[in-house]
Amino acid sequence: MASTIRKLIAVLVILSLCHLIMNPICLAIDIISMNQQVIDGETVVSAGGIFELGFFSPNGSIGRYVGIWYKGLPVEKVAWVANRERPLIGSNGVLMINASNGNLVLVDDKNVSVWSTRLVNLISNNTVAVLTDQGNLILRYQNKLNESVPLWESFNHPSDALLPRMKIGLNTRTGEQILATSWKDDKDPSLGSFRTAVMDPQELLQVLILNGSLKHFRSGQWNRRNFIGVPSMTKDYHNGFQLLTDNNGEELYFSYALHSYSAPTLIYFDSYGAIIQMDWDAKENKWLRVQVVPKGKCDLYNTCGPFGSCNNNDSPICNCLKGYEPKYIDEWNKGNWTSGCVRKAQFQCEEMTTSANSDDERKRGDVFLPVSGMKLPDFSHYLLTWDKMECENSCLKNCSCLAYAYVDGIGCMIWGKELIDLQEFYRGGEQLYIRLAHSQLDKSSQMGARIAIIVSATVGLILIVCAIYVLKIRKKGIGSLITFRIASTQSSEANLLHNNLTRGSSLELPVFSFKCIENATKNFCTRNKLGEGGFGPVYKGVLSNRQEVAIKRLSRSSGQGIEEFKNEITLISGLQHRNLVKLMGFCIHGEEKLLIYEYMSNRSLDVFIFGSRSNDKAALSWNERYSIIEGIARGLLYLHRDSRLKIIHRDLKTSNILLDEDMNPKISDFGMARIFGGNQTIANTNKIAGTYGYMSPEYAIQGIFSEKSDVFSFGVILLEIISSKRNSSYCHSEDSFNLLDHAWQLWNEGKILEFPDPKVVGSLETPTQVVRCILVGLLCVQEHANYRPNTATIVSMLCSDTVLPSPKRPAYSCKDRSFDDPNLSPWSRNFVTISNVEGR
Ligand code: ACK
Predict the structure, then answer these.
(1) Within the chain, what is the greatest distance between any pair of CA atoms?
(2) Could you name the CATH architecture of 22-157?
(3) Which of 658, 663, 670 has most ligand 1 atoms within 8 Å of CB, for mutation?
(4) What fold does the segment set 606-833 form as a domain?
(5) Can you identify the CATH homologous superfamily of domain 488-599?
(6) How far is it, in rounded angstroms, from Cα 405 to Cα 392?
(7) Whole-angstrom Cα distance, residue 216 to residue 209?
(8) pTM over 0.85
(9) What is the whole-number distance in angstroms between the Cα of residue 550 and the centre of ligand 1?
(10) For 583-630, how does the pLDDT look when each residue is reduced to its tens digit (9 = 90+)?
(11) Is 359 a catalytic residue?
C-alpha cells in the first residue's frame, strides 16, 4: 500500500513538473496577467527572488494593503504601498488585470476597485504587470511588433520610501512632481503631512521636505556630487545619488543606485519628517537604521531666522552673522530666533548715494567676509561665469547683492534677498562670502588679520629660505613637490600661466619644478616611458613621497599647444569624480610643458581590449566589462549632467579610458574638451580634431559637437568593449562596413549573440545584460544625433531593466538594407524577444 502511495505521489510530482514545464505561466511568478491574479495570502516574487509583492497589514492595523518588500528579510518597512488611502477590510482582496481596460486593479470582496493604475485610453488590454528584481512593478503591453512597452511603473509613484533607482523629481515644463509622501503614522500608510519637492533648477536644484505647504527641511544645493546641506552624504552616496534627465531635459529627477550595490537598502521618511536609511546587515542578520536628517535642530528649516546662522555644536545654537544683530533682542535672548537678525550698518555702496562720508571711508568700499563650512542660504541666483573673481566683482558692483559663493560643480551663486536657512557645519559645507561695510570688520579682527598676515609672511619667508637651503644642500634634489607660492624659482612663463589660471578661482593646483620631474622620471629614462600619445610621450614617475604619477610631456612638435595645455588644466582641475583621471599638477620649464596625473596602474583599457592583456588568460570577464561600461557612463554623466556648465570631451576613445588598480575606469585627456554654458547644447568648430572611428558623422563632417557627439563615441567604446574588436580596424566582411554596421546587421538578423567576444558570453548563464548593452551601444551610434539617448538616459538604461526602444540605422553603415523598414525585418527587433533566447 505504502509503495503504491509513493508511486502515486511520484506520478503526481512528475505530472505537475510536466505541467509546469509545458505551461510557462506557472513559472512566471513575477507576473500578474489576465490569467494570473493575486489573492490575499498569495505573493508575486521577482525573477531573482529579491522582492515580493503581496497583501499585508501594518502592525496594529486591521486594514489590508498591497505592498512590495524585500523577500526573505524581516519586513520592518514596506517599500511601496498601492492602496494607501483605501485599506481593504477583510482578506478577500484581489489584485488583477482589468479585462476591459488593461489597468492593474485591486478590488475588494464586492469587486469594487479600491486602487488602480488609472490609465485612460489604453489602446490594448493585452497588458501584464511584472515585479522586477529592483522592486519596480511595471505594467506593460505588447505592441504589434511584439515589443513590450511600459505603461506605468511603481518607481514613478513612490510611497514614503526610495529604493535604489526609484525617482523623485520634477517636470520642468508642467511643474508636476514625482514625490514621496510620509505615512500618517506607523500603522496608517495613508498620506501624512510630509512630502518631498524637487526645486526648479532656476533656483538651483535642491530637494525640500514640506510639511503641508511649509518648508520643513532643505537639502541645500546639488553640486553634481551631493547636496551641500547634507554633509553626512557618504562615499556611497557620492557614487550613487544621481540627477537624471528625461525628455530632452524636461524631466529632472534624483535617484540613487549604490555603485557596488549588494546589500538591501532603503531610504524613507517617517511621519515626523525625518529621513531614515535602512541597510541590511547580513552578518548581524538585522536591519541597521540611521537617521540621515534631521541630526539636530539646525537641520529644521530656517531655525535662526533671516541672517541668523545655526550651529548644532554651539550653545545657544543661533548666532547672527557678522555685521548683523538680533532684530528683537529680548525674543532672541529667550531662544525665540525666528525673527532673525538685521544689518548693523549701511553698506558703503548705499552710503555713497545717501549721505556724505569721509573720503577715507568711501575709498574703502564694501568687503566680503568669508565664512566657511556653511550650508548656503536658500533662494540663490545663478551667475554664468567660470571665474571666481568675476563672481565676486559682479556681487560687489550690485549694491543689493548680499553675499556670494563660488562652488565646484555649480559655479557662481549670489543672494539678493534675505539670507535664509544658514547652517554652520563642523565638517563639510561651503564657503560663503558675506558683504559687509568696511567699518563692520571689527577692529580686533582687522588687527588680528594684520598680525596673522605678518606672522604667516614671516613664517613663509623662513620656510622659503629653508626650502632653498635644503634644496641647495641636497644638490641632487629629491624632486620635492613645491607649490607655486614657494616655487620662486619657477620660470616667468609658469608664473604668468599659473596666475592666469588661478587668478580668482578656487584652483589650488600644485606647480612642480622641472628638477622634481626629472628626478621622478630618472631624467625621462626610456624604461619609464609608458607610451606615446598624439601629443608626446607619457612617463611613469615616482615622487619623493613615493607617490606614483604619470607625466605627460607635450612635445614641441605636437599639435597640443599652449591652448590645449591650458584647457586641460583649467577644465580638469575643477572636476572631481571617481571616473575622471585626477590632474595633480603641472610644470612649465622653457619650452617644456608637462602635466602630472595620478598613476593608473592598469593603464589604458585599450591594452585589455585589443592589446597584450586581451588574451584568454588576462581577458576581462563580463562583470568587469560591465562595471567598466557603467563607470565610463557615470564619468560622462558627471561631465554632461549639469544643465548649465556642461563639458563635452570631444575625444572619447578606448585608449583614453584608464584603469586604476581596482579596474575602475577613469576618463582621461581633456585637451580637446569644451565647456558649454547656459542653455547651450550644441557648438561648431572649424578645427575638427578627434579620432577616426569614434567621431560622430555631424562632428566629422560639419564640425558640430554636442553631448550627443560624446554619446556617439561612448557607443563605439561600448561596442568595442563587448566585441573586443576595434571599430577603426574592423576587418570588413563582405556584408559589414565596420563594427557598428556589423552589430546592426547581426541585430537585424536575430544573431546578436554572435557579436560579443566569445570569451565574454561563453561563461554566462544569461546574456541578457550583454544584449542590453549592445542595444544601448546601437542606440548611441544612431546616425541622427536626435535619436541618440542623452547621457542620463544611458545611465538609467544600463542600470535598470526598463524596455528599450529599437535602434535605427547606425552612422557609416550600408543604407540599402531592408532593415530600415521594421516590417521587412526578418527578425523581431524587440528586446523582449531577445530575452526569450535564454528563457526564464
Ligand atoms: O595604453 P597605455 O599603457 O596607457 O599607454 C598609454 C600611454 O600612456 C600614452 O597615452 C599611458 N598613460 C597615460 N596616462 C596614464 C596614467 N595616468 N597612468 C598610467 N598610464 C598612463 C597609456
Answers:
(1) 116
(2) Orthogonal Prism (2.90)
(3) 658
(4) Transferase(Phosphotransferase); domain 1 (1.10.510)
(5) Phosphorylase Kinase; domain 1 (3.30.200.20)
(6) 8
(7) 5
(8) no
(9) 7
(10) 888 888 877 889 999 999 999 999 889 876 666 666 888 888 999 999
(11) no
